[in-house]
Amino acid sequence: MVAVSPAPLDIELAVRPARPISRILNTILQWLTLFAGRLPGEYTVAKLDAFDRFRRNTSPRQLTGIFLLSPVACLAVNVLIESIPLADPATGFYGSLHFQIRNFLVGTIVMMTLITTKMSCMSRISARSWTYISGASVTLAVVAISTNAAIAVIGDVFPVPFSQFAPAGPMGVIGALINHRFLETPDNRARIQRIDRWLAMDLAPVLVYPIFTAVFMALEPQQQLWLSLLLPVLKLFLRYLLWLVIKDELDLVGAATCSVGHLYHILFTVMCLQNAKSLETYAAVVVVNSIQMLLNCRGILQDAYELGRAVEAIKDLAQLSSKDIISIVSWIAQQEQISRSLHRKIPSRLFSTYPEYQRGDYVTKYHNLLLSETYAISKNSRLANLKGRDQRQSSKRHSVPEAKRSSKTTLVEGFKDNLLKTDPSTISTRAASVAELSVVSVVKKNGVTCTQSPQAERIGQCEAFVRCFTSALHQTEIILLRSYITIFAMPFYGLYQALIFTLPNRKYFATMATTTTFDAVANMIYHMLVLCSLELVFLAIYIVLISRQLGYSGVHQLGFVLWSQRILIQGKLIMLPIMIMGFPLAHFGNGSIFQLKP
């Protein structure tokens, strides 16, 4: 046996301690890169499989329906809410019957969206689930109305100051009791608490953004220009906090951060534009959006470059057609050695915790794998809980990698039954190409040359290729969804303001102070449509880049996320505009914020 002695230079480098200042600077730089850059994430193989099925089974007419109908519920709910006539808040609590009806309706709808989102993340929603959702929502809305009524009567004050937030304490207590009684079990308690923290984060910025808007309204034109540049920073901070809470929900984190963080950002951006005192502020918003578009395009090209490098590392894979790359990646990811390796990641990259992607046939195919990994499977063959994950996390650090234990199994052998139902000609090409992969690698570690087995190297390269592609899918999902939300929010806000302008309730909204004529409304709508048209151009650029550089359809991906996560996305599209647009209403007692002076 030959002993390998390290060189003196290696010893010197090994024992030389890193400077504290250097470590601190590196840590700060890494955090700033994470904060301001693209947040990490990737699709699970289960979500990739669901996307593959969606794009094969969805017609162009169905896609068009998804794009056009997704915002309809939001528009209908807001028209219904704002059509309720209100009395002057000066009449006091006993003259506020219509406002109490409106407040009860808003509270019920907001609670229904939150609870429905929560239930959809835990299990598939059934008829019994809707009974629970309706009962819990009405109960919490009654608690909110009763709390504000008690404050108004006992304190002889109306409007109740910050009445949107005053009932938060009692509602939190009652909600926790309902959770404990009907939802929580020892197996799902940790996940329910994580989802609750995420949903609570959705409501936190409702107070932060209006303060920003109120200060903006009081500033001079030049000051408004500089303050408007802080909106993207506020958005990045909110996005980062949301990501910290939900980053382990791999298949939800993209839609969650976009449907909350970006929707907040867009709604308050247009609210600021409505009250802007110069065109320079409007121009600044256009410039910032254009810079964001260029950064998004750069990100897509960077993902394409990384994917190309991953393809080159796998022999013969680059010769396959890129038109069906999703099927290729999905097929490779479902090979036994690779799927086991992906499953051992924390959290699992093989299975999804989102019920919409827990298809019975997909989970059943990996039934034995789940049993061998000490996972529990429910009677309907869906992933029920994640018991044993912590034990595997600690034990796998001391175990031998599966690729090295199984020397008799090849990459493709024994997995023909697991192929997706695709074109037979493409399947045979893929099988032959992947089966012929043979690489011998030499890795240098601490100055010592080590030779990896061809099979282990092959598995590592294929896994890297799969994860590179699923990461690109995650990033493009965020880009497309963010663009779609912008396109929706701009005309929505214009139509909403036009509706408010024609209703008697207009005089009770603080943000309508600068919109006193129909020409002002028309001018504001024109600006919104210009920004919407600009974003449509950006979306077209994204779709072309994704198709040509990454090899899949951005149109199908956007339709897929809007449909498969429709409860989450449409819930936010309904809830957030109701709360944000209603915040300037005098009856909610937020007038002190809009009277702030810089």
Shape: globular
Structural class: mainly alpha
Report the mean per-residue pLDDT as an integer: 79
Total DSSP helices: 25
| Largest sheet composition | 2 strands, antiparallel
* Strands, count: 4
Q: Measured on Cα atoms, how large is the radius of gyration? A: 27 Å
Strand order of the largest sheet: 1-2
Distance between the terminal alpha carbons, to the nearest Å?
77 Å
User: Uncertain segments of ≥5 residues (pLDDT<50)?
Assistant: 11-15, 374-451
Helix residue percentage? 55-70%
Count of domains: 3
- Quote the beta fraction: under 5%
Order of helices and strands: HHHHHHHHHHHHHHHHHHEEHHHEEHHHH
Helix/strand layout:
Elements: H1 8-15, H2 20-36, H3 45-57, H4 60-69, H5 72-82, H6 97-122, H7 127-155, H8 168-183, H9 189-203, H10 205-218, H11 221-228, H12 231-246, H13 253-274, H14 279-312, H15 325-333, H16 336-343, H17 360-365, H18 367-372, E1 376-377, E2 383-385, H19 389-395, H20 402-405, H21 424-435, E3 442-445, E4 448-451, H22 454-502, H23 518-550, H24 554-564, H25 566-582
Antiparallel strand pairs: 1-2, 3-4
Helix pairs in contact: 3-15, 4-24, 5-22, 5-25, 6-7, 6-9, 6-25, 7-8, 9-12, 10-13, 11-14, 12-13, 13-22, 13-25, 14-22, 14-23, 15-22, 16-22, 22-23, 22-24, 24-25
